[in-house]
Each structure stands twice: as structure tokens, then as C-alpha cells.
């Protein structure tokens, strides 16, 4: 049974060891009794705010790409760069699928093709406000 | 040093041409001029600031006593003048900077020198008037077309989106989860660039040089890093072969926390040694870099911002491409508690892949657990007391059906979150992070109180969602729920006011009143009497067990004694019970008072053997005596109280009574007690009380206990006097300090007291027989003239010289002689050397025949 609860305070706590987990399904779980979302980053919902320490680094960099690369992708030989900031092109939100060569540790151009239209749609849908039901259905 | 005349000329140029002045104003400082001109320059500056014009010559002369002439400055001359003034300012600036730098060097602040010199050297007039966009189109584009604008990254897909590739002075930033391929991506980029014959400098702040180079080995040759040893020759051949066709690839390891300044320094050295500048600078990775300035360790945001900006400045200065990487994560503290399937609770650090986590309605399984990282966190507290420690970009589901983080501002004060309602049934688990297995939900609760009735269950569920229930403490919740259940079972209407009153009764929950409140009047009284009847020691139970007669008899003899027990249980059982009771009592008494047996030396020897026992006993005594000492007591209490305690313990002197009863009453009490003590220890009183024989013994005991009686004479004098005494028949006529009849004293008047310089009422003598007195003088105390010179201080306690001591003794003898006594002085030394002769000498003096030779 979930009920609403108001936040009383948010205070800085200092630097401590932290951990990420990644879930399937709607990616929601209860942490200390509070409903929270997937800790680790997932490809479908990355944005600039996910960089550690906040957005200050992104402000200065000319290009900001996020690497999407997990164990299953490693096995498949895929690695994706997601453009999150650009100064002089319309690349933001676009992904590049590259080939991961595991024994050589090399990243090369991939033969596979990403369906870029689908990606654009996906990214666009993230920017809209979603209802809880939508998130549950994901 | 520039000549004074030229300096004057400069100022005259400035005064003559307002245009020159305005151009040069920004770099012109009064301190560049000789002291005599400084006031004038300052005046011109101020005047121009205020009135936007140059002061007239008369005005300057009036203000500063300096005379300048006006010259004709043509338009062509303005440029000459301004360059002259620029040169002059730069030169003077440098001179002063060098002076300052040497001062700084002495002060041990060499960091500042660089900037000071740099500023001085860069003093110049700003002649760049910007670029005219419309006029310079051709030249701009032609300049750009000469150098390749964008350099391919080696990945065509990425190049497309980058607009052709990376440009110089640009910084590209990758981010990934920890272990998510940051270093590998950077290394791949390095190789792609090197293959285009570009020079790459790879600065690693995390991995060692060897490790990075092994990765390169693997990338070039295809040999996995683990198998390098068997394939050594292959690697050597292949890498040295391809090295000739490619650009340079330099790997340099720097410490974690390296600043942009350190990288700048390394680049300078690099340039000097190698004669070229790398085309691409890779820093692996950004989070490990520090800022040039000291930034507080907590403020990662600021540190990262500065480090990134400073890194970018380097790229622009050297016209290099830059690539770096950073962590990305949204994290929770390690001790965060998550709920698994089946109501099991785990700390998040113990979660493994495949665990199913509960989200309030369904379960999601964990697909990935990422390594831990250290980062800045925030603590969120909700109204119901729930706490969570998370990073600024951890996402929460708000009641507006949005996913928000602290960083993007969606999660702030007063935002409403979803929480799972839990009942904490222990006062110990106030912190959610500590609860783990102590958290129970409603299902658990309903199973625990075994409610079969759905209506009751619903009523309870309804209640625990009310605000009242959520505001009370966890411990009270447990009690409230019990009360609630009881009221429902007792068919009493639920009224929250009554529940609050129940809580206020608190500990007195076994009273009739509390029962009535909790269960209603009827059910409560019934319950109370049920409970009272169940009590073990109750008259009715006795009657039931033993019959009326015996019960009354037993109840009249309720005391715990051996006879009572025997009477109650028979001889055998009674004894056993009594012994049980005794040991029980003893144990409780022991535990209460600490020691039951007498802890003397025998006890310890019995327990530990002779050696160890005596040691322990000694240590214990030391400890006790230390604990009784004033020094120790002073450490525990303040001095006033210590005085009280101490006087109580040691002696009941006047001071103690004054402390206890105040000045007047204390003195009175003290005197009373003194008189009482004298009375109780008087000869008459003791003989009257204890009979003649025992009374005298006691009296002597008391007398020798007092200090005065015991310590009047020395042991050696006792030998002498005892020997004399053995010759005397008429013992009652003799007085001597060690004798039961007591010492003899004579009272003295004021004049004598003054003579003796003493406040004593009486004069004590060592030995008296009839009208003769023998004084035994110790060598040390009375300063034997045979042993001590006049000026010696033989007695350290009195600080008197030997002469003074002898004088006072002589006075004393004089007084005694005046009173009509014959006085003989025996010196200790005399007696020690020849005891027999001394004794006969004494006996002769006393006029006694020598009867019993010693």
C-alpha cells in the first residue's frame, strides 16, 4: 500500500560510498520505504544531468557523449555513443551504434544499422511528462 | 632608469593631446614615474575621471607645484607618442615586477611570481579593434580553408554527427557508468588519431602507464592483455613495425588530483624536449583532476567546474584537441534498505543480480549491480520520518507522476513522494536504515493479532492511516494498536481521544482506571479482577490450598524464617526451601553491595595462594588507601565538599563542626563533645563504669593512644629511666612520662612564658623524684655542644641555630631551679657511651642507694 508523503528537508550529507543497481520492468523499487527509480543509467532515458558531480563539466565541454555499454551489449559486440550536447550540430539525442571487438578492446564502425527514426521517437517521448501508468507499462 | 627629463616630456605629451591620454590611460600608472611627477599624474587621472577633460597647466601648477609646457602634437605624432608611452610603461612595470618578485621569493611565496611577471610583460595598448564581419569574409574563409577544420575521430558515424570530426581547441567529454568503457573509448580515440599521423599525449590519472600501454598492445596486435607473455615477440615485432608509419603516442602517468597547471608545466617541458606539441590531449579521466585553486573537498561541483574550464584553457592556448571522460551515476547510500519479494528486507549493498525488488504493487528483478563510487550525497527526510541518502541525480517518482531528481529541481522541499506505509513495532528501530527484519507491514500485523473478523481488520487499517497514528512514536504505535484491538474485541466504540488518554496513563497500565479506559467500564473491570485473581500470593489462593484455619495461621506468619518454612512445608522440604531462599537472598545481596565476605588477607591467600594472594591483597589495600586519600577525593568533588568529607573521615575537629553546623553552633557542639570525651576517658568515670582493675587498664590504653602521652620521650631515655625506676622503692613519689601514674607538670606564669617564648600553660619534665628532676637531652633536639657548633642548624624542623636552642633550654632549667628543684641534665651521648656510670650518677643525684644494677 503506497501513500503520499511530503518532503520535509533536503540537506547535504557529504561524500560517501554509493552503489547503483539496474532493474527490469517499470524500474521502480522501494528504498527505505520510498518509491524510487532505477539507480543505474539506462540507454533509453539518459540526459545531461546524469554526469557525476552535476552539470558544470557539461557546460564547459563542446561535445558531451554518453557511453551505453553493459554486460549484455558487451556479449553482443555493441557499444553506443549517445550525443547529449553539441555546439555546432543537431546531434543531440542521436545515437551511434559502434562495434565492440572484445579480444582487441577495439571500438570500430559497425555493420549494423540503428533505426534512427525509432531512436528519435524514443528520445522525444522521454522529454514529455509521463503518467505513472506509462512508466509502469514500459 | 628613464631620465627625469624624458618622463617630463611624456607628461607634456599627455597634456598636449587628449587623444593620446585617452589611448594610454588604461596602462598609465602614477607609480611608474619618479616621485616628483607622481602627484601630477594622479591629479590628471582624478581630474579626468571627474570632469572628463584634461586639467589646464595653471591648475596643475597650483595643485602640485610642477610646471609643464604644452607642445604641438600633430595627428601623425599621436602614434609615436602612444608607442613611446607604452614602451615606457612596460619597462617600468617590468622593473617593479622584478623587485616585487624578489620580495616574494624572500617571503617564500614563489607561486605568485609567474603571474606578476606575466602581467608586467603583457602591458600593452589594445590596438585590436575586432574583426569586421562583413568586410573580412574572404580572408576569414581563406585562412580557415588552409588548415583542415575537423579531424576525423576514426568512427564515421560519430564524425557525421560531429560535423566532420573534432576541431582544434575543442573538448569532447564522454561519460559512462563506472567500468562502462571510458578508458577504452579514450584509448581507441587515441589510436584512431595516431593512425592519421597525429601526435597524441595520453595523460592517465587512474591507471598505470604499463597498463595503458598493454591495452594499446592488445589493440594494435589483437593479443589479449592477459596473454602478453607468450606472445612477447609478436607484440615487439608488430608494434615496432607499425610505429614508423604512425604519429607519436606518448603515455604519461600523473597523480590523481593533478591540476591544469601541472599539465601545463608538463606540456612546456614536453615542447622543449620533443620540439612539437601534441595534436590531441587525452586526460583519463576528468573526475580525478584537481582545480588550480584550493577548493573545499566537499564542493565537487565547483572543483569539477574549475578543472574543466582550466583544461579547456590549455587546449585553446596550445590549439589542441582535447578528450576526456567522466563518471555518470545516480546512486544510493550502501546501507539503504530495499524490500524483496516475500517481505524480506536487505541492504542495497547485499543485493545480487536476480533479486526481486518490491515496488508497492509488483516485483522487478535486478539485472545489474554496478560497482560502488564515492560521491556527494544528499539526505532527504519526509514528514513521516523516512530518511534516504542519495546522490543529486537519483530519481524519485513524485505524486505528479513525474520522475525527478534533486539536480533538476523537481525534488525539493514540500514535494510529495510515494512511500510504503510500514508499522515499526519496536522502539529500537527508529532509523529505517537499521530496521531490516524489524519492519512489518499491515499484513504481518493482522496475522500477528489474529483477527478473523474482516470488519475489525478494516477498522484497524482505517485507523492506522489516519494522521494521528502517523504522528505518534513507533513505540506508542504498538501500544495503540493493542488498545485498539482490545477495545474492538470488548465491543467498545473506537474513540481516538480515549486512546490518547490511555497513552498518557503510561506505566500505570495495571490499574483499574487504565483497564476501564482501555476496555470500557464493564469489560475493563472484569479484566482487572481476572488479572488480580490470577495473582499468586493472594488470600483466596491460600484458603483454597490450605483450608481457612491454616491459611489464616500461615498468613499471620508470613515472615521468611527457618521455622516458618519448616512449619509450612515439613522439616525436610522446609529446610531445602529455606536454604534455597537464603542463597537467593545472598546472591541478590551480593550483587547489590558488591562484597559479602570479609576480604582480609586470609581470604585472598585461601583464594589465590600465598604469593598471588598477598600481592592482590597489597594492591587492594593500596587502591583503597588511594581512594580514601584527599588527593583522589579532590578529583571527584569540589574542594568545599571534599573538606567536609575529609573532616568527617579523619578527625572531628572544630573545623568539621563549623562546616557542618555553622560558626556559633559548631563551636558549641565541638566544646560539648570535647567535654564529653574528657569525661568518658577520665580515670574516675572509667573505674566507676568498668570496675577498678579493668577501668585502669582502659584508662592507660586511652592515655597511650593520645599523641602527647605516647611520644613525650625517646626510647633511649626510657631505658635510663626504667633502670633508675627499678632502684626506687617509693614508686608513688616518682613521675615519669612512661609511668602509669603519668607525667608531672608544673604551671608557669606569664613572665616565664615570655622567657621561654612559648604559649604552654605547663612545663613538662622528664623525670621527677621528690624535689629532684632529671632532664634527658637528646643530642639532636637539644644541640649537644660536644657535637654541634653554635651556628649549626641541627634541628631542621625548628630552623633554630644550636646556640638559640641551648639558650632556651638554659632558660627552662633556670625556671625549674627558681621553683626550688634540683635539676640534673643527662646528655644522650653520655648515656650511650657509658650507661652504667650514668645510671649511678643519676642515683647518686637522687640520693638513692644502688640496689639493682642493670
Largest chain interface and its two residue counts? A-B, 90 and 126 residues
Strand order of the largest sheet of chain A: 4-5-6-7
| Main structural class of chain A | alpha+beta
Strand content of chain B: 5-15%
Ends of chain A: how far apart? 22 Å
Principal-axis shape of chain A equals: extended
Low-confidence stretches of chain A: none
Helix content of chain B: 40-55%
Structural descriptors:
heterodimer, A: 138 residues, alpha+beta, two-stranded antiparallel ribbon, 4 helices, 21% helix, extended, B: 854 residues, alpha/beta, five-stranded parallel β-sheet, four-stranded mixed β-sheet, 40 helices, 24 strands
Describe this structure in words.
The complex is a heterodimer of chains A (138) and B (854). Chain A has 138 residues and is of the alpha+beta class. Chain A is built from 4 helices and 7 strands; from the N terminus they run βββαβαβββαα. Chain A has helices at 56-60, 71-76, 116-127, 132-137; strands at 2-23, 28-31, 34-37, 63-68, 78-85, 95-101, 106-109. In chain A, the strands form 2 sheets. A 4-stranded antiparallel sheet of chain A has the order 4-5-6-7. In chain A, strands 2-3 form a two-stranded antiparallel sheet. Chain A is extended. By secondary structure, chain B is of the alpha/beta class. Helices cover 53% and strands 13% of the residues of chain B. In chain B, strands 3-7-6-4-5 form a 5-stranded parallel sheet, sandwiched between helices. In chain B, α10 packs across α11 and α29 (639-649) crosses α30 (654-661). The longest helix of chain B has 32 residues, at 75-106. Chain B starts with a helix and ends in an 8-residue tail after the last helix. Chains A and B meet through β1, β2, β3, α1 and β4 of A and α8, β3, α9, α10 and α13 of B. β1 of chain A pairs antiparallel with β8 of chain B.
Amino acid at each position: 500500500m503506497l501513500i503520499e508523503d511530503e518532503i520535509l528537508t533536503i540537506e547535504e550529507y557529504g561524500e560517501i560510498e554509493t552503489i547503483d543497481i539496474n532493474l527490469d520492468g517499470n524500474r521502480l523499487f522501494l528504498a527505505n520505504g520510498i518509491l524510487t527509480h532505477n539507480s543505474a543509467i539506462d540507454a533509453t532515458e539518459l540526459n545531461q544531468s546524469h554526469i557525476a558531480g552535476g552539470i558544470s563539466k557539461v557546460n564547459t565541454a563542446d561535445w558531451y557523449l554518453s557511453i551505453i555499454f553493459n554486460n549484455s551489449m558487451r556479449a553482443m559486440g555493441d557499444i553506443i555513443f549517445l550525443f547529449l550536447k553539441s555546439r555546432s550540430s543537431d546531434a543531440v539525442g542521436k545515437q551511434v551504434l559502434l562495434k565492440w571487438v572484445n579480444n582487441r578492446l577495439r571500438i570500430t564502425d559497425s555493420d549494423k544499422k540503428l533505426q534512427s527514426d525509432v531512436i528519435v521517437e524514443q528520445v522525444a517521448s522521454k522529454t514529455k511528462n509521463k503518467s505513472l501508468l506509462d512508466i509502469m507499462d514500459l | 632608469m628613464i631620465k627625469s627629463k624624458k618622463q617630463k616630456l611624456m607628461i607634456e605629451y599627455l597634456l598636449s593631446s587628449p587623444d593620446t591620454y585617452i589611448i594610454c590611460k588604461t596602462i598609465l600608472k602614477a607609480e611608474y614615474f619618479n616621485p616628483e611627477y607622481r602627484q601630477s599624474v594622479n591629479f590628471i587621472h582624478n581630474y579626468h575621471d571627474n570632469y572628463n577633460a584634461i586639467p589646464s597647466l595653471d591648475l596643475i601648477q597650483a595643485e602640485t607645484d610642477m610646471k609643464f609646457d604644452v607642445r604641438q602634437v600633430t595627428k601623425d605624432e599621436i602614434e609615436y607618442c602612444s608607442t613611446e608611452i607604452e614602451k615606457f610603461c612596460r619597462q617600468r612595470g617590468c622593473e617593479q615586477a622584478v623587485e616585487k618578485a624578489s620580495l616574494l621569493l624572500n617571503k617564500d611565496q614563489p607561486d605568485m611570481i609567474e603571474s606578476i611577471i606575466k602581467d608586467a610583460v603583457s602591458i600593452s595598448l589594445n590596438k585590436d579593434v575586432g574583426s569586421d564581419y562583413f568586410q573580412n569574409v574572404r580572408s576569414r574563409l581563406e585562412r580557415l580553408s588552409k588548415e583542415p577544420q575537423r579531424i576525423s575521430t576514426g568512427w564515421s558515424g560519430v564524425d557525421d554527427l560531429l560535423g566532420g570530426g573534432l576541431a582544434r581547441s575543442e573538448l569532447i567529454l564522454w561519460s559512462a557508468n563506472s567500468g562502462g568503457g571510458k578508458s577504452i573509448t579514450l584509448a581507441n580515440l587515441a589510436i584512431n588519431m595516431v593512425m592519421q599521423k597525429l601526435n597524441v599525449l595520453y595523460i592517465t590519472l587512474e591507471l598505470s602507464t604499463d597498463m595503458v600501454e598493454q591495452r594499446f598492445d592488445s589493440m594494435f596486435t589483437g593479443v589479449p592483455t592477459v596473454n602478453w607473455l607468450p606472445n612477447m615477440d609478436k607484440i615487439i615485432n608488430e608494434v615496432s613495425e607499425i610505429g614508423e608509419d604512425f604519429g607519436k603516442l606518448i603515455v604519461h602517468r600523473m597523480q590523481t588530483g593533478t591540476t591544469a597547471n601541472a599539465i601545463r608545466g608538463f606540456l612546456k617541458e614536453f615542447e622543449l624536449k620533443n620540439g612539437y606539441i601534441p595534436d590531441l590531449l587525452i586526460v583519463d579521466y576528468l573526475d580525478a583532476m584537481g582545480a588550480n585553486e584550493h577548493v573545499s573537498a566537499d564542493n565537487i561541483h565547483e572543483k569539477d567546474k574549475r578543472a574543466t574550464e582550466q583544461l579547456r584553457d590549455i587546449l585553446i592556448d596550445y590549439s589542441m584537441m582535447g578528450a576526456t571522460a567522466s563518471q555518470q551515476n545516480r546512486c544510493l547510500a550502501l546501507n539503504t534498505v530495499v524490500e524483496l519479494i516475500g517481505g524480506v528486507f536487505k541492504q542495497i549493498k547485499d543485493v545480487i543480480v536476480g533479486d526481486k525488488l518490491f515496488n508497492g504493487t509488483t516485483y522487478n528483478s535486478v539485472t545489474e549491480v554496478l560497482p560502488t563510487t564515492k560521491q556527494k550525497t544528499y539526505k532527504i527526510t519526509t514528514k513521516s520520518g523516512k530518511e534516504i541518502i542519495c546522490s543529486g541525480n537519483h530519481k524519485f517518482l513524485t505524486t505528479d507522476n513525474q520522475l525527478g531528481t534533486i539536480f533538476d529541481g523537481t525534488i525539493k522541499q514540500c514535494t510529495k513522494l510515494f512511500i510504503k506505509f510500514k508499522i515499526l513495532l519496536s522502539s529500537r528501530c527508529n532509523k529505517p536504515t537499521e530496521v531490516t527484519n524489524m519492519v512489518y507491514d499491515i499484513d504481518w500485523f493482522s496475522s500477528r493479532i489474529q483477527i478473523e473478523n474482516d470488519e475489525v481488520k478494516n477498522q484497524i487499517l482505517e485507523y492506522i492511516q489516519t494522521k494521528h497514528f502517523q504522528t505518534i512514536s513507533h513505540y506508542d504505535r504498538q501500544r495503540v494498536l493493542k488498545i485498539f484491538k482490545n477495545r474492538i474485541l470488548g465491543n467498545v466504540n473506537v474513540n481516538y481521544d480515549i486512546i490518547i488518554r490511555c497513552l498518557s496513563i503510561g506505566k500505570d497500565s495495571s490499574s483499574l482506571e487504565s483497564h476501564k479506559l482501555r476496555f470500557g467500564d464493564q469489560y475493563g473491570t472484569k479484566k482487572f479482577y481476572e488479572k488480580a485473581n490470577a495473582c499468586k500470593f493472594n488470600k483466596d489462593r491460600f484458603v483454597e490450598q490450605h483450608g481457612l484455619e491454616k491459611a489464616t495461621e500461615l498468613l499471620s506468619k508470613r515472615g521468611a524464617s527457618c521455622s516458618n518454612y519448616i512449619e509450612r512445608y515439613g522439616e525436610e522440604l522446609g529446610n531445602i526451601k529455606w536454604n534455597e531462599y537464603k542463597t537467593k537472598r545472598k546472591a541478590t545481596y551480593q550483587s547489590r553491595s558488591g562484597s559479602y565476605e570479609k576480604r582480609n588477607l586470609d581470604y585472598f591467600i585461601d583464594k589465590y595462594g600465598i604469593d598471588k594472594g598477598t600481592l592482590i591483597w597489597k594492591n587492594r589495600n593500596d587502591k583503597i588507601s588511594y581512594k580514601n586519600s584527599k588527593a583522589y577525593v579532590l578529583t571527584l568533588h569540589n574542594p568545599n565538599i571534599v573538606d567536609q568529607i575529609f573532616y568527617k573521615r579523619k578527625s572531628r575537629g572544630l573545623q568539621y563542626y563549623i562546616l557542618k553546623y555553622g560558626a556559633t553552633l559548631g563551636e558549641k557542639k565541638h566544646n560539648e563533645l570535647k567535654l564529653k570525651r574528657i569525661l568518658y576517658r577520665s580515670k574516675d568515670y572509667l573505674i566507676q563504669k568498668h570496675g577498678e582493675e579493668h577501668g585502669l587498664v582502659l584508662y592507660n590504653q586511652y592515655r597511650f593512644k593520645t599523641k602527647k602521652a605516647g611520644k613525650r620521650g625517646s626510647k633511649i631515655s626510657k631505658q635510663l629511666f626504667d633502670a633508675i625506676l627499678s632502684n626506687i622503692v617509693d614508686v608513688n613519689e616518682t613521675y615519669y612520662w612512661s609511668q602509669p601514674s603519668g607525667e608531672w607538670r608544673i604551671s608557669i606564669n606569664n613572665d616565664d612564658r615570655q622567657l621561654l617564648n612559648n604559649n604552654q600553660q605547663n612545663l613538662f619534665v622528664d623525670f621527677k623524684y621528690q624535689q629532684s628532676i632529671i632532664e634527658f637531652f637528646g643530642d639532636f633536639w637539644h644541640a649537644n655542644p660536644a657535637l654541634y657548633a653554635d651556628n649549626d642548624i641541627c634541628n631542621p624542623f625548628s630552623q633554630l641555630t644550636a646556640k638559640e636552642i641551648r639558650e632556651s633550654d638554659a632558660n627552662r632549667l633556670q625556671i625549674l631551679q627558681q621553683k626550688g628543684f634540683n635539676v640534673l641534665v643527662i646528655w644522650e651521648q653520655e648515656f650511650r657511651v657509658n650507661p652504667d656510670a650514668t645510671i649511678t650518677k643519676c642515683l647518686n643525684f637522687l640520693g638513692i642507694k644502688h640496689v639493682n644494677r642493670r
